[in-house]
Amino acid sequence: MSKKKNIKKPRRSKKFAWFLGALAGDGYVNIKGGSLVLSVTQKDFAERFKSVGEELFQINSSWYHRELDNPNHSDVYTSSFFSKELSNWIGDFRGGVWHKTIMEKYSWVVTEDKYKISFLNGYFDSEGSVENVKETKTISRIRCRISVGYWEPAFFLKELLESLGVKNTFYIRPSTGIVHDICIFGADNVIKFCNMITPSVDYKRERAKYISKIIKVDNSVFIENLYQRYKELIEECGCAKTYSILLEEGYGDNNHYKLTKNKIRNWTYLNHNPTNKRGNHHVTYILP
């Protein structure tokens, strides 16, 4: 336990913004007891919280590793700063009110993108995940999920993400009507967010790195040219011959857009228009 009473009060910085985000997610401030605590199952996250906090406030953190002899539960790592001055100064970070502390005491967090991203990075280290959501046996979609259990902080995080150009939505528990997660859907949104953050937790960092390496290929111009040529041929040639001519002219050689007989039939008999960008069918995402 640190006996040092005086703490350094840090200035605005990306490290301090990260620390505040981590504190808002998994941290706890005990004003009466004079302590600031983070207790998590990710050792690398707890170690960064400890080192960043010691650098910011110039006091030592105590460290506790609770080993659990149970294969169904992970060990717990706890970083604790014992300082009455710090717990009184840092502010209220209870689950339903931490957003008010940010806006009233640390409003600089929402003034610049670099601070917004650092804060979200810290919160994501606490409460975030990158997931594959399986929709069918052959189709799965990527999403980011950020846990939050209170409406007002959820709106705060939602607006923060949207100010950075990241669209998101709420997941609400059907049984309670209470918000449970903020979800980032859509490959473009997920890739954009993963390019912004650098998680401290190893498996989260590796997952975000993988997503950030996905390459987006826009086939719009190719499809427009293909469809224009199809319209020139179809009335005189019919489906089978049109398909053969298009292959001969090289329209079947695009590795990112497969031309098939079924597509020609759908364009002809079902009036499907491949240049319609609804559903993002003109875009191909290439995995690393």
Question: What's this, in brief?
Answer:
This protein is of the alpha+beta class and 288 residues long.
Polypeptide structure, described:
With 288 residues, the chain is of the alpha+beta class. A four-stranded antiparallel β-sheet has the order 1-2-4-3. A hairpin with a 6-residue loop joins strand 7 and strand 8. Helix 1 runs parallel beside helix 5, helix 7 packs across helix 8 and helix 9 packs across helix 10. The two termini are 47 Å apart.
Low-confidence stretches: none
| Helix-strand topology string | HEEHEEHHHEEHEEHHEHHE
Classification by helices and strands: alpha+beta
Question: Portion of residues in helices?
Answer: 40-55%
Biggest beta sheet attributes: 4 strands, antiparallel
Q: Estimate what percentage of residues fall within beta strands.
A: 15-25%
Number of strands: 10
Radius of gyration: 26 Å
Give the neighbour order of strands across the main sheet.
Answer: 1-2-4-3
Quote the average pLDDT.
90
Please state the overall shape, judged from the principal axes of the Cα atoms: elongated
What kind of oligomer do you see?
single chain
Number of helices: 10
Give the terminus-to-terminus CA distance.
47 Å
Question: What order do the helices and strands come in, and which of them pair?
Answer:
Blueprint: H1 14-26, E1 27-30, E2 35-40, H2 43-57, E3 62-66, E4 76-82, H3 84-90, H4 98-105, H5 113-127, E5 128-134, E6 140-147, H6 151-163, E7 169-172, E8 179-184, H7 187-196, H8 202-212, E9 215-218, H9 220-248, H10 261-269, E10 283-286
Antiparallel strand pairs: 1-2, 2-4, 3-4, 5-6, 6-8, 7-8, 9-10
Helix pairs in contact: 1-2, 1-5, 7-8, 9-10
